[in-house]
Each structure stands twice: as C-alpha cells, then as structure tokens.
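Protein modeling request. Please complete all fields; requests missing the sequence field cannot be processed.
Requester role: graduate student
Desired output: 3D structure, token encoding
Chains: 1
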Amino acid sequence: MENGNNTHYAPYKGLPMLAGFCTLEEATRPGLGIDDCVRRLKRYHYTFKRLHEIMVKRLTAEPIYELKMAFSLHAYICAEHVAALRTRVAEMRQPPLGLEEIPDAALQLFFDELLAAPGAAELVLGIYGKAIPALTAGIRRHLATTNHLADAPTVRFCRLALVELEDLVRYGEQAVAALVDDAAAQRLADWSALLDDCLAAAGDLDGAVAPVPVNLAPSFSATPFVYDLVPRRDERFTDNYNRGVNAEAFVNDESLPAQPKVLMLFFKRLREIDVPEMLASIIAQTEGKPWPYYLDMTRQLWDEARHALMGEVGFVAMDLDWPRLVRPDFTWSLGLNTKLTPKQRHAVLWYIEQGLMPRTGKRYEWEVAAEAGNALALTFQDYDWADEVLHARIGREWYVSDMPSQQEALAYGDQCWSHAVSDWASWKEQGLTEHANWWPDLYRAACARWGVEPEPKVLAFDVSYAEVRSDLKSFHE
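Delivered output (477 residues):
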C-alpha cells in the first residue's frame, strides 16, 4: 500500500478506521521525523511564551480598556499553550528540553520589536497583524505535513490551539482595522517590512521554509524596553483618583434595599480593572519560577479582567452609560505597583482574598443579587465567588508556601498593605480629583430605567468615606 491507496481493505462493517482520529491518507504519509517535529514545537513554544510576555508587560500602562481586557485573555491562552507544548516536547526523547533557548536570532528581534512598540497601533499591528497569523499558518502547516497517527498528541495540540488562534485572528482583524488607519499604516510601513524581513530570515515562524538572507537592524528595540509600573486609562476614565464613594459601606448596610445595591456590585466588578494592572506587575517582575506559577497567575489575571467585564456588561444590560456615571479609579494598582515589591503585592492580594471568604464577603454579595431578583447579577456573583475561592488556592500555593506559616503570611500581607499609603487629601489639593459623589446621578439614571421614583433614603445615603484615609485598606474591605 502506498500513499493510503488501498482498494482491498475495509474495516469491520464499515466502522471508522483509526479510532476516527484521522484519515488513512493522513496516517500513511511519512510526515515529520521527531527531530523536525520538535524543532517546530520549540518555535511555537517560544512564540506563545514571547506573546505572553509582551501582553503581560504592556497591559498595565496600556490606556485602552478594551486592549487591557484582550491582553488579559490572550496572555492566559498563550500561557495554557506554553504549558501544553512543554508537556509534549518532554514526551519526545528530549531531556534536556532546551525550551529556554532562543530558536533563531531573527525571531528574537521580531518579538523584541513587538515588546518595544511605542503605541497601540504598533502593538496590535505586530501582535495581531503579524505574529498571530504567522503562528496560525505554521500550526496549520504542521497539520498538513506531520503523520497524524504517529504524531497524534501533537496533532491534537494543534487542533485545539487552532480553535483559539482563529478566535485571536478574528479579534486581531477587527483590532487592526480599528486602530491602524491608512495614515498609521503608511507611517509604519518600514517597521511592518522589518517584521516581515525577520520572519523571512527565520524561515518563517515555524522554520519550515528556506531562510532568506536579509540584513536586519533593530528599530524600536534599539532602545531597551523598560516595564512601566504606572497604570494608565483612556479618555473615558475622567477621574482616576476619585475616592468619593464607599461602595462597600453601601452594599453592607442592611437597612438599604437590595436592588440599588446591585448597581454598586456592578461598580465593584468594573472597578477590578485595577487588579490585572497590578497582577501583571507581579508576573512581569517575578523571574525564575516554574511555568505552572505563571500559568496560575495569568489565569487569575484573566479572571479579574472577566470580573471587570461583568461590571461593564451589567451596566450595559441596564442601558446605563457607565463612563459618564461612575468613576472607577486606579489608586489601588498605582499604590501597590509603585510602593511595593512583587512579593509584597502578592501578599496584599492574598490578604484581601482571605477577607472575601467569610460570611460578609462573596457569599453576601451573591445573596444581595439573589434578594434583588437580578438574574444577571446573580450569575455574575455566583462565578465571581467561585473564582475568588480558586484565587485563594493560588495564593496558598505560590505565596503562602514560601512563608513560615499561614499566620505569618497574613501578618506580612497586613504589614505590606500599611506601606502602600496614599495621601488622598493631597490628590484634591493637587487638582487630581474632587472626590465627587457620583452615586446620586447613577441611582437616578437607574431608577429612570426601572420606571420608579428614587427612594429618598437611598438617594441621600452617605456613601463618602468617613474621612479621606491615608491607607488603601478600605478599598477592598
């Protein structure tokens, strides 16, 4: 039998051959040898890992909210595929694995250029206009070349990876169309050509084609990239230092009705934009951990971004113009990022998570949503609660395990939080904010949507903090 052409053999009663995994043609072609297969897998691994690095390191200082959220998800997707590739390479006679080696200098320059890209247009063009399509094409080429029976575990990886990569390709097409207009494309023509030259010199991203000799010189990466710890927001976020509304005091007040509390729950979820901004800094500045650490931490980063998206969707579902009506600030991520070390930030994060576990934490927020009869809020709070239980486990595994005891881990988190002080009064003195109370406008707008009159005691509830405190603790208490 050659090339799968056999007119004599038939499976029993016409049952699918080869467990239905592949065709006879795919199983009878010689395909890739182990060495060639592993060389390609290591390039995919390098690509996913560099994309994860770039998205994490650019997230904090990226002003555009939608890109922050996309980087959170896409970095987690990349982290998952890095883990899968590390497992697969380890199965292929490879110890030592050599997964930390750079597979090609031209590929290194390609990703260094993306990391150093100066703005959103450059970043989305490089990530979504160049890297993701090249990676997708390489994995499709792998499927078209390898023996699907002999290389079945790799084939399964490729098929699963392509499902998500195709989502990223579609996202990228829209992102590039939105942010790279004709003027930007013309301005970036030379840089775009440099990226193409890098891929050509590397024999494409997967190394499957003959390299093209090209003289390469760094452009943006000629200036070394420096991670920016300061969070930034786009122009819709007009009051980034506002600490005028104590959402926790409102939600926890048992004298108030549940329905308006849902508004504050949506605000609390949306406000979690700052958690990915801070978590990204921990991941970016923590070196030398095993890959499961980065995978777990990036999962948490994406979960926290999902929570912010839940808040956004909650307001949109109510037809409320959240950029005009609420003021999610960035003072928590700003304080932790600029005043604490990565370990201290993780300590504070885990300390906060412990406060979300008791009766007045996530269970209570779920009960508020249930009492309000808001099905969407109930769903969001149900999954938010489950996520926080997972995050507490991640904290125990990667933070508490490095401490002498859980009690000392708690004490250290409390101590670290006390160091991340911020002078709220000075923000007003500097003209950064008026600490305006935006609650009445939000509540009135919601009541108009509900077709009811605002309740005087809800409208007049004192949502301000008792005083402009000099610490961050009340933020998540």
